[in-house]
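Narrative of activities, Objective 1.

The group set out to show that a structural description can be obtained from nothing but a protein's sequence at a throughput compatible with the screening campaign. Below is one input-output pair from the validation batch, recorded exactly as produced.
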Amino acid sequence: MKRTEIANHILARLENEKLSIKQSYMDTKNSIGYFFVDELLPVEMALAIYKAFPPAAAMNLNKSLREYKYIAAQMDKYDPILEEVLFAFQDQRIIDVISDICEIDSLYPDENLYAGGISRMEQSQFLNPHLDNSHDKDREKWRVLNLLYYVSPDWKQEYGGNLELWPDGMEGKQITVHSKFNRLAVMATHDTSWHSVSPITHHASRCCVSNYYFSDSALKDEINFHVTSFRGRPEQKIRDVILQADSVLRMGIRKVFSKGVVETNHVYKK
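Output recorded for this entry:
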């Protein structure tokens, strides 16, 4: 399975659903613009991608108060189909149609997979509410879209591991986007696009293929760089205080060391 073949299927589904998903994005654009497309790929192709996911032991574990999940971006270590599907989303035809859907000019993929790649989440794992880092790894372009493709078969919403959007911040009610099998979810990222992944309550793995798109301009009237910033959930009062202090500290460090103190290893080094 080559990326062009995969991209052909993705493009066909986006074109087929273009009117409805554009409406979905425009209806939510003023808060956190998003849309999703089901049955993105032929079932046998989606299942092959899921079966190719490496075991947790072969991935990197991120575990802290902010998040608890397995991630990987060095794609040449794994089954080639995973690299093919990741870069299928970077096909220029797909970028062009999503650019049209979201009305975003100068849209670029990220061949470095900075904070992208694949993720695997097991029972009790989570991703707390957060804002994504505002820029690419070189701080030259603005991060504007997050593409999440879910491939775990028979994944029920009650299992957790769902995308949560917080358009009114931690004080408001979240929107839950079920991470169902063979669904692509696309969401805007900017300085108020708080989102999270609900804790997994089922003994199974939620597997996801992730891409970010960047642009020459921010989606909102942002003028400053910001690091990935985490919050506690509404019921996590103490964690919220700790995570807000953590974000302030890390932002202070980045003002002094613009590229960070330690080089990130969450990129694809070809």
